[in-house]
Amino acid sequence: MPLNCGIVGLPNVGKSTIFNALTSAKAQAANYPFCTIDPNTGVVTVPDDRLTRIAELIHPKSLVPTTMEFIDIAGLVAGASKGEGLGNQFLGHIRATDAIAHVVRCFDDPEVVHVAGAINPLHDIDIINTELLLADLDTVEKRHSKAEKAAKSNDPKVKAEVAVLQKLLAALNAGKPARTVELTPEEKPIARDLFLLTSKPQLYVANVDEAGLSNGNAYTAAVEQRASEGGSQVVRICGALESEIAQLEPAERDEFLSSMGLEEPGLNRLIHAAYRLLDLITYFTAGVQEVRAWTIRRGTKAPGAAGVIHSDFEKGFIKADAYASDDLFALGSEQAVKEKGLLRSEGKEYVVKDGDILFFKFNV
Ligand SMILES: Nc1nc2c(ncn2[C@@H]2O[C@H](COP(=O)(O)OP(=O)(O)OP(=O)(O)O)[C@@H](O)[C@H]2O)c(=O)[nH]1
Ligand SMILES: [Mg+2]
Questions:
Q1: Does 231 score more than 60 pLDDT?
Q2: b/e string for 333-348 if b means 16 or more Cβ within 10 A?
Q3: Separation of alpha carbons 313 and 294, rounded Å
Q4: How far is the CA of 17 from the centre of ligand 1 (A)?
Q5: Average pLDDT over residues 82-105
Q6: Which of 8, 14, 87, 270 is most buried, by CB atoms within 10 Å?
Q7: Which residue lies with its CA nearest to atom 10 of ligand 1?
Q8: Site to substitute for ligand 1 among 7, 10, 13, most atoms within 8 A of C-beta
């Protein structure tokens, strides 16, 4: 199952606009079809210059970028945790995601209605985060009263669960998200089984107008301040502009971006930020047929990385020849990388690094 990032926020703040731009954008120099799995889930290619740079040196027949999934979730309103506005259903959709991109409206436009009447990003953030917190509180309280009854039997497993639930309760009651609770390695799986909304990593997307794009505005300053208090990232994006850019062919797009003084679409920054939020890294396979990028969780060992290509590669894993794409860029050819002794043979315990180029040897 690929990891995904849910797009969350109040109604009418630009979530679908951003999602649609993400999923309809025409791929740069790559043949992977952008596609929407269902109206709410979209596969998005992860832009990566390294793929094109490897291809320039290896001249493959085809180039395949890696992808990640975004999920467009309907707007949450105050009271969602109590079932307002189909609240429970939408919270269920958020529960199924691995990370949250929280879209906050940071643009003025009298034509676009704001559900709370006025533009106030901090107030908006509080509404959403409070609903997520209340939903978690409900989950943890229910679980806690069950576990407390069971704890009378002195089962150490249940006791451990109660201890975790109490830590979580204390944080949630103090208005702190579950992700801020420090847990031991033994406690973590217990908390994970609760699928809490506030334990998911979160970043903020400040949806700004064109004027606010490069230097921000008073709204984004407030969001950035709030985000930094919680250790979260903020990505500034102009949803309206992104949807225009997404319609352009790659060549036109470059011209348009440079005319605006931009290096890349804001969407690229969002995709990269979400990728990092999910703790994902990329490795490459590179041959004359195909140069391809693959996604793994940071910390994955070589057999697990091989398993992303095919489960047989993982089962029959023998070794991986590996070198860093940076070494290829610095030296200009695979031959030169070999001559310098930078091509290594790695075994089952090798932890794959971002940017590695790997060749797997396996038994079938
Ligand atoms: N001016 C301006 N309008 C925008 C921008 N992004 C989105 N909008 C407008 O805001 C309105 C709501 O956008 P949506 O993307 O549908 O909002 P949403 O968050 O998906 O809304 P729900 O699905 O109802 O929760 C639309 O009329 C968009 O055209 C932007 O960057 N600038
Ligand atoms: Mg929408």
A1: yes
A2: ebeebeeeebbeebee
A3: 14
A4: 6
A5: 83
A6: 8
A7: 14
A8: 13
Lowest mean pLDDT among 16-30, 149-163, 169-183: 16-30
Quick check: 323 pLDDT over 60?
A: yes
CB–CB of 126/204 below 8 Å?
no
Q: Looking at per-residue confidence, does 68 or 34 come out higher?
A: 68
For the chain, the first-to-last Cα distance in angstroms comes to 24
Residues 276, 118: Cα–Cα separation, whole Å: 33
Q: Is 210 in the pocket of ligand 1 (CB under 6 A)?
A: no
Looking at per-residue pLDDT, the higher value among 246 and 298 belongs to 298
What are the residues facing 297 on neighbouring strands?
A: 280
Q: Evaluate: CB of 16 within 6 angstroms of ligand 1.
A: yes
Instruction: Give the count of beta carbons closer than 10 Å to the beta carbon of residue 178.
Output: 23
For 269-285, what is the mean pLDDT? Answer: 96
Q: Residues in the chain, how many?
A: 364
Structure-token match 């008073």, residue found: 218
Q: How far apart are CA 62 and CA 66, in angstroms?
A: 13
Ligand 1 atom closest to Cα of residue 19: 15
83 pLDDT exceeds 80? no
Strand 99-105 relative to strand 202-207: parallel, antiparallel, unpaired? parallel
The single residue listed with the structure tokens 């990891």 is 3
- Tens-digit pLDDT profile for residues 46-78: 999 999 999 999 999 999 999 999 999 888 777
CA 343 to chain centre: 31
Confirm or reject: Cβ of 13 under 6 Å from ligand 1: yes
